Amino acid sequence: xxxxxxxxxxxxxxxxxxxxxxxxxxxxxxxxxxxxxxxxxxxxxxxxxxxxxxxxxxxxxxxxxxxxxxxxxxxxxxxxxxxxxxxxxxxxxxxxxxxxxxxxxxxxxxxxxxxxxxxxxxxxxxxxxxxxxxxxxxxxxxxxxxxxxxxxxxxxxxxxxxxxxxxxxxxxxxxxxxxxxxxxxxxxxxxxxxxxxxxxxxxxxxxxxxxxxxxxxxxxxxxxxxxxxxxxxxxxxxxxxxxxxxxxxxxxxxxxx
Length: 257
What we know:
Layout: E1 3-6, H1 13-22, E2 31-34, H2 45-54, E3 58-59, H3 63-72, H4 84-87, H5 92-100, E4 105-108, E5 111-114, H6 124-138, H7 144-151, H8 159-170, E6 173-174, E7 196-197, E8 210-213, E9 222-224, E10 227-229, E11 239-244, E12 250-254
Parallel strand pairs: 1-2, 2-3, 5-8, 8-10
Antiparallel strand pairs: 1-11, 4-5, 6-7, 9-10, 11-12
Helix pairs in contact: 3-7, 6-8
């Protein structure tokens, strides 16, 4: 049995199928972990979501899954939205229910998965505590209000929860005061003075375990001490990448052939 951790798919179904061929994926033998952002921007979001659900993939919520839930709750589409095929599908309710029950953080032994990152002052236990509180809101029967509130401007009462959610699903860089610099999306080498990648600061990243994350296409695939970045920008014309946990072997397919 092998476990493969896969970067942001974002609706790129055909590259995903080529990656499965590349690793000779066998659903009877192998397991898949996805770092979130299965959907949106690419034109195969419905197929990706169905395939991941049917193959019982371990997936964490990314910012695009949160946007999908908000759309299902009534949010108007943004420019570039490609989620219509999911929302009008005959199995839309089942797919949305599957998505809203996904975790924000996942852990097995020394392996941890999150979509974006961890705030600098968090222990791993802090991250799971915040994730549990946020997940509980999406798993309620009347989950729609929570889904919409997660994307709305924070209020004094929701500020801490919004900051936690931003850390888990949108974080890339921290400023000199260790506050999230969410506006920066480029590679670390192009950041202004004082900005640092979150994984160089976060207490939750230690060499004794491996944190897998995505969300940062401009960073690309990077292996470091205690972390692996897996978003190689498939939807932007880059590639789709998987790493095998057991031996660290890396597999990448281009976005198009």
